[in-house]
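Quick one, tokens below. Sequence please?
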């Protein structure tokens, strides 16, 4: 990894550590990435299994070759402690998973952030936030205007992380391949959307425990998820709704 940035963080025992962030490449990092992904998949509890699915070797290969995107990593003392992926869908690309999603702009203006993983010993220290900021810069440099993330609907920690970063829930679909209930969150890389029209539709506050179909109904009515508090997601309407479900 060519470390592009570094910073000092305090680990959980209070000791200072130098963390480095950059794009991963090379054989050793390829196996470190697969191992970290598998470690976190294995560490998920029975109710969390869908939060992060195992990925095939060819998925990581595509990212490492830069064919479909890039893998970003954080290292501390040469140990890979966090990794995430930025994928770059193209317009008309049928394998990008965005068919039928209410995307705010054309696919070639969107970067998809996925496969966020932080080693359990290094959570809560802002590493995922750091990787997101880094990926946002990569996306801007590539001429993208929007970021889309797909999150399993019950993964409240990850929804928190994304919404604190200014993203909103713009769609809720059962993923065609495995029927998994998935939220799509959109972020604008150049401005935070704050143009809410709560007067017309009011505000709806729905607990994540209410069930996925409640959220789908709200989105069909033209509302989007704008904030989260504990296990409740706050939905409101956005003025000049631009989101259209593609054919
Ligand atoms: C989700 C995950 C990547 C977050 O990583 P992290 O490095 O601990 O997150 P950060 O420390 O950068 O936190 C970012 C923000 O999210 C919030 N957050 C993180 N975990 C949270 C939790 N469990 N509950 C509520 N908020 C949480 C933080 O408070 C922080 O907000 P702040 O800046 O206002 O303090 C990590 O928990 C993980 O690897 N989970 C298992 C795998 C997974 O579910 N991946 C998602 C696949 S798409």
């Amino acid at each position: 990894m060519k470390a592009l940035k570094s910073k000092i963080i305090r680990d959980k025992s209070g000791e200072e550590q130098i963390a480095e962030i950059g794009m991963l490449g090379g054989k050793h990092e390829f196996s470190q990435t697969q191992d970290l992904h598998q470690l976190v998949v294995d560490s998920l509890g029975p109710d969390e299994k869908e939060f992060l699915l195992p990925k095939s070797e060819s998925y990581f290969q595509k990212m490492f070759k830069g064919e479909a995107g890039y893998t970003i990593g954080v290292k501390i003392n040469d140990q890979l402690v966090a990794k995430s992926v930025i994928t770059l869908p193209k317009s008309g690309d049928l394998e990008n998973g965005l068919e039928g999603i209410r995307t705010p702009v054309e696919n070639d203006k969107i970067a998809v952030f996925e496969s966020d993983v932080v080693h359990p010993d290094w959570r809560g220290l802002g590493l995922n936030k750091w990787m997101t900021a880094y990926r946002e810069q990569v996306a801007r440099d590539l001429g993208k205007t929007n970021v889309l993330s797909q999150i399993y609907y019950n993964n409240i920690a990850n929804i928190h992380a994304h919404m604190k970063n200014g993203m909103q829930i713009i769609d809720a679909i059962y993923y065609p391949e495995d029927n998994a209930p998935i939220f799509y969150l959109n972020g604008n890389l150049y401005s935070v959307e704050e143009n809410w029209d709560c007067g017309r539709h009011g505000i709806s506050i729905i607990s994540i425990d209410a069930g996925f179909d409640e959220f789908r109904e709200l989105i069909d009515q033209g509302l989007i998820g704008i904030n989260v508090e504990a296990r409740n997601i706050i939905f409101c309407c956005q003025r000049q709704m631009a989101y259209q479900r593609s054919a």
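The longest strand covers residues 2-10. The CA atoms of residues 174 and 181 lie 4 Å apart.
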